[in-house]
Specification:
This protein is of the alpha+beta class. It has 7 helices and 14 strands. It is globular. The chain binds uridine-5'-diphosphate.
Length: about 250
């Protein structure tokens, strides 16, 4: 294959120039990081699983009319996506308290929230992605009021879809993060779900046992991350044979 131009390398993914204008290739690495990259490891098979899982969720969203950047999977680790202008915000939706909201507001982990709560963080590693208000977002010009309304609507549709899909396989969606991008069509812009949706960016708890099946397994050193992600993929029927061999040989036959 001809050597492609690398456009960006992040903690878990690489973006390459795509085959046609307006497209990119998104490559999923095996690297895991937490606490703003203070904790790092390489988890064999994670990239393959996240490529498949993100495909599964984004494809499902496209099918129900929630626009995403996803076009198609190319191979085990790569997918073709639309090039978007990423809005520099992490959009977080919470159904139950976990992680930073527990620390910030003293809410016990696992407590059901009165309604889904949408939060925004400013994407800036040096500052540790600080929580920001709609006032900050508009005052600093990161997004308009119309964008904000559209982002909240998109995030809540993603929440309904993901919650339902996970509930059907016995998993509770505690919270998740998405990123949103702009696609320009002349002067007209559309907002689409971008980046990835995977257990790296969601909190997923088994409904019966309460076991964590997401990146908290790595953050908190409470088990085998690849096995947890494989379990999510297995329940959703999204299980590439190779990843199975790499992580849980006894599962295939
Ligand atoms: N999250 C993420 N990337 C980030 C920060 C958060 O994907 O840079 C996800 C995280 O996995 C969780 C949700 O967003 O599903 C809410 O995270 P929280 O604010 O509780 O932060 P954390 O406890 O992860 O620092």
């Amino acid at each position: 294959m001809a050597r492609r131009k690398k456009l960006y390398e992040g903690k878990a993914k690489i973006l390459y120039e795509g085959p046609e204008p307006g497209t990119l290739v998104q490559h999923f690495k095996d690297d895991a990081t937490a606490f703003n990259a203070e904790k790092r490891d390489v988890i064999e098979g994670k990239g393959v699983l996240n490529n498949r899982l993100s495909e599964f969720f984004m494809d499902g969203l496209n099918t129900i009319g929630v626009p995403t950047h996803f076009i198609r999977r190319i191979n085990m680790r790569e997918q073709l996506i639309r090039s978007v202008e990423i809005i520099p915000l992490e959009v977080i939706v919470r159904n139950r308290a976990a992680g930073s909201i527990c620390k910030r507001l003293g809410i016990p982990e696992g407590e059901a929230l009165p309604r889904p709560i949408v939060e925004f963080s400013f994407k800036n590693d040096e500052l540790g992605d600080p929580l920001v208000s709609e006032e900050h977002i508009i005052a600093f010009g990161w997004a308009s009021q119309q964008d904000l309304d559209d982002m909240v609507a998109l995030a809540l549709r993603v929440n309904d879809f993901l919650s339902g899909v996970m509930l059907a396989v016995g998993i509770r969606l505690i919270d998740f993060k998405i990123e949103i991008g702009r696609i320009w069509d002349g002067d007209f812009q559309r907002l689409v779900v971008a980046d990835e949706i995977s257990p790296d960016s969601c909190r997923l708890w088994d409904i019966k046992s309460g076991d964590k099946l997401d990146k908290d397994v790595f953050r908190q050193d409470i088990g085998n991350l690849a096995e947890a992600y494989t379990e999510v993929a297995r329940r959703l029927g999204v299980l590439p044979a190779m990843a199975t061999q790499m992580t849980k040989p006894h599962l295939i036959n």
